[in-house]
Amino acid sequence: MSIVSGEARFQPLFDQWAGRVRRRLLARRMLTGLAVGLALAVVPAVVAWRTRHGALRPVCVSLGLVGAAAGALVARRKRWSDVDVALWLDDRLETEEAITTAIGLPGGGDDDDFRAVVVTTATSALSKAEATRVRPTVLRPLHALAPVAIAALVVLARAPLPPAPIVAQAPGEARVQLAQVEGLKRVAKLAEARARDPQQRERLDQIARDAEKLRADLEKGMEKREALDRIAKLRDAIAAERLTLGEGEKRAGLEAAISKLQQSETTKDAAKALGDHDLEKMDAEMERIANAREQRDREEAKRTLEDAAAAAKAAGAPDVAKALEDEKKSFDERERRAEALRDLEKAMEAAGVASDDQKSEAEALDRKGTDEAAKKLADAMGKALEKLTPEQRKKLAEKLAKQAKKGGTSQSDPQDLKDMAEDMSTPEGQKKLEDELKDMADADDQSSEAQGEGQLGDAEEGAEGAEGDINGEGQQPGAGQGPGSGKGHEKMPIPLPGSGGSSDANGDGPGTEGHHHDTGTGPHNGHTDPVDADSLRSRARGPISRAPGMPGSTTGWTPGKSGGTANVQGTGGLTAAAPGEIDGVDHSDVPKEYREQVRQYFQP
Q1: Nearest to 266 by CA among 293, 285, 291, 253
Q2: Between 571 and 399, whose confidence is greater?
Q3: What are the angstrom distances between the C-alpha of 172 and each of 69, 97, 225, 233, 475?
Q4: Can you say whether residue 378 is alpha, beta or left, with left for phi > 0 and alpha for psi between -120 and 50 degrees?
Q5: What pTM did the predictor assign?
Q6: Rounded to whole angstroms, how far apart are CA atoms 600 and 603?
Q7: Which end of the chain has fewer surrounding CB within 10 Å, N or C?
Q8: Residues 298 and 250 sit within 8 Å (Cβ to Cβ)
């Protein structure tokens, strides 16, 4: 074999085996870098899981790829040369460095024969070489870290995040965010509330602005402590606004008006309500009197209101005087409406055209004396008029004309009755009367001060409900009523025994079957018969000990407890008494009524 042909075969065989060796070494270093990178990735994955940064856990796997790239870079820098590969092949094929010699011998010299022998030997060894003997090992024990690390990363990636740590916060430092606070919307409506003067208008507008700003801040989120502080200021401002009538230097005028109202039995409750700044209750008292049948009470109430307004104005309280004058106007409107309805109802009943519903509502007006009852009566009579025939309208007109000549029932203007009689004579007039009745049913006769008080009450309940929302308690009791529901704190009436259900304070509503109610047709002279009994003194017997009380403070009875101790230290002879010294009990501070029991206790 010539040298040229031997080298022609040797070099390709060597390059082929050298490429295999180098590729396996590259794979081994890349696997080593991958295993180390994945093992290191477990550490940041654990940190991300522990710190509840779940999105960062899958990113940690990229450290394995970084490790594999680092292994490839190291393999390139430490790439074996041809001599290194030849030495590896000589060692694995046991050719006594023939391959290394063939690589290192220069060509074109006197030792061509020697070179030919070496190349031939190396070529023969490489051609007969087995891959299992020559190729370097790729897997190392260190590479076992890769599957273990991958399993750990998968577990960490799928594991639920640990619960957030509970960080103790100082009271009030917690943040609160509410998208809808209905209570503050009710407070903000004070911008549309009635005001008695420009100063009150400015104060109400400021409260409304503060409520709107607080609602906007709650939507963005704010400290709970600050939110509660601002809602408390709103409540204080609303409460203070309810006490502005007759405050400060106008207090004397308020006291003068209260004194005038207290002089009449009819308006004593109204005087108490005015003193409590509860103008809604005062208006309700005047509403009851204005809708009542008793003319004497109505006349006395009107005179008292006029005197109280004059006294307030004279004492320097024009706001109180204006409130009472407005109440007097509302009183007149209610009285006029009630008397007109009673006259029309009486004429319709005399004409035989009154409906059962109308009669029931008329009785309810006499019994309750409320605006609501008057409105229901007006509505019932309006519906009854729509169904009248021409003959019935004519007959009703005649009855009204007769009542006009007699002067009406009491306060009703005869001219009003005459106008109603003329209206009933034509279809157009009847339609006009029906419209007037509808207006009566829809009229709001509450005084302006009472309406403003109701709006303040509604705002106060709204602020209370908003405070409950901030505290996470939901709306407070009484906060869910509609606008103007300042009477949300009234107590429910107690149903009568055997009523079979609840009823209102006047006996109307469910559960009133079988009970008799005054229809208002009896005497209204205010007289009450005496109680038919010899004496009202109790026959109960409750003897008690006349001895002085025991030392110490006593507030009630409580059952004794085993092992209990006295709360008053003894200082008498009992502390040194022995079973044989029974007389020591008489010299102790034990009360007289208990000494016998103590003596028996120490009896030997």
Answers
A1: 285
A2: 399
A3: 54, 85, 4, 16, 20
A4: alpha
A5: 0.48
A6: 5
A7: C
A8: no
